[in-house]
Amino acid sequence: MTTATPTTPTRAREGTRIEVRDLTKRFGTFTAVDNLSFTVEPGRITGFLGPNGAGKTTTLRMLLGLVKPSSGTATIGDLAYHDIPQPMAVVGSALEATNFHPGRTGRDHLRILADTAGVGIQKVDEMLELVGIPAAARKRAGGYSMGMRQRLGLAAAMLADPQVLILDEPANGLDPEGIRWLRGFLRHLSAQGKTVLISSHMLQEVEQTVDDVVIINNGKLVKQGAMSDLHGEAHVIVRTTDLDALAGALRVADVTTELQDGALLAQTHDLRLIGDVALRAGLPIYELRQTTTDLEALFFELTEGTNRNLGDGASAGFGQGAAPARDAITGQEGAHA
Ligand SMILES: Nc1ncnc2c1ncn2[C@@H]1O[C@H](COP(=O)(O)OP(=O)(O)OP(=O)(O)O)[C@@H](O)[C@H]1O
C-alpha cells in the first residue's frame, strides 16, 4: 500500500479547515485579541459572534494577513494567508461592505478583481446573477444600499470559487428577505463542502443560518460548539386542570416534571407522548409546547457586564459599544498594524 498522498486531493476531499491557535493582537498596551483558539470545519457554517469591539474583525483581519498577530497563528488549510500560493482561489472574503469606490460600477469592481484573480470575465456576470444584482451592477457603487453593497461584496468573494468564505457581518443591512436569501446561499455553499465563517454581533441574526458558533468577548473565547448545543435540552410546557394528576401519569411514563408558573415543565421533547398520557388520564390540555432557549438572553449572559468598550453607565445592550481605540481618521482596524 502506498503512503504518498498528495496534499491537494486530500484537502479537496476533506475540505479546508481554519485554525486559530493562541492568537493574540495587542495595539500598544491594549489587547484586542487575547490568546484565542478555535477551529472552523469545512462543510459547515460557523458564526463568529461577540458584542461590538469583542475582537472579531481584528481576528478575521489576522486570518486574512491584513494584521500581523502579536503572537499565535491563524491558518487556512494549514497555511498562513501569505503562504497560500493562489489565495483568492482558496479564500474569498468580504470584510467591509463600504469598501467599494463610489464612482465605479459594481460590474467594473468585479472586472478588476477578476483580472487580478486571473478569472474569466464571464464569471463576473455569473456572480452578479448569483447574488441577485445583475441590473444594479451597471450603476455606480456609491448609490448602492447597504444590502446591495453586501451582495456585491459576496460576489467579489465568490469570484474565484474559493473553498473558504470569510464574511464580516454579512447580514448587516439586509432586510428579512435578504437574510433569508443569504442563509440559502451560504447553505448551498456549505453543502458543497466549503468552509464558511461569518461574524455577527447578534446571535439571533444568524441563529437559523449557522451550524456552529464561536463566541468571544473582550478578545477571549467564551464558547465554541454546535448551535444545537446552545439550544440545550428541549423541554415541554403543558397546562391542564389537575397538574398533580398529570405529573403522576407522566411519572408512570418515565417523564419527570416540575411545576413552573402554574404549568408543568416536562423533561422531554416529545409533545405527542405528553398528549397521549394526558388523554389516557382523561385530562384536558390547555397548552402544550416545547420551550425554546432565549438566545438573546443567553448571548447577553455569556458576554454581559464585562464589555470593555462600554463606558460608565452604559447598559450592556448590543450594537451600542463604542470602539475607543479604533483609528480615528481611517476607521480601519488594521491602520496601525
Ligand atoms: N488599529 C487599531 N488600533 C487600536 N485599537 C484597535 C485597532 N483596531 C481595533 N482596535 C480595537 O480593538 C478592539 C476590537 O475591535 P474589533 O473591530 O476587532 O471588534 P469587533 O468585534 O469586530 O467589533 P464590531 O462588532 O464593532 O465590528 C476594539 O476595542 C477596537 O477599538
Would you mind describing this structure in some detail?
Residues 18-243 form the ABC transporter domain. InterPro entries: AAA+_ATPase (IPR003593), ABC_transporter-like_ATP-bd (IPR003439), P-loop_NTPase (IPR027417). This is ABC-2 type transport system ATP-binding protein. This protein has 337 residues and is of the alpha/beta class. The protein has two domains: 11-230, P-loop containing nucleotide triphosphate hydrolases (Rossmann fold), CATH 3.40.50; 233-290, Alpha-Beta Plaits (2-Layer Sandwich). Helices cover 32% and strands 23% of the residues. It is built from twelve helices and 13 strands. The protein has a six-stranded mixed β-sheet with strand order 5-6-7-3-8-9, sandwiched between helices. Strand 8 and strand 9 form a beta hairpin. Helix 5 (122-130) packs across helix 6 (146-158). It starts with 6 loop residues before the first helix and ends in a 34-residue tail after the last helix. The model is unreliable at 1-13 and 312-337 (pLDDT under 50). The structure holds adenosine-5'-triphosphate.
Enumerate the distinct ligands: adenosine-5'-triphosphate
User: Portion of residues in helices?
Assistant: 25-40%
Please provide the ordered H/E string of secondary-structure elements.
HEEEHEHEHHHEHEHEEHEHEEHEH
Outline, from the CA principal axes? elongated
Q: What is the CATH first-level class name of the largest domain?
A: Alpha Beta
- Overall radius of gyration: 24 Å
Major sheet, described briefly? 6 strands, mixed
Strand order of the biggest β-sheet? 5-6-7-3-8-9
Number of domains: 2
Per CATH, which architecture of the largest domain?
A: 3-Layer(aba) Sandwich
Count all strands and give the number: 13
Protein name: ABC-2 type transport system ATP-binding protein
Family: Belongs to the ABC transporter superfamily.
Region (Disordered): 311-337
GO molecular function: ATP binding; ATP hydrolysis activity
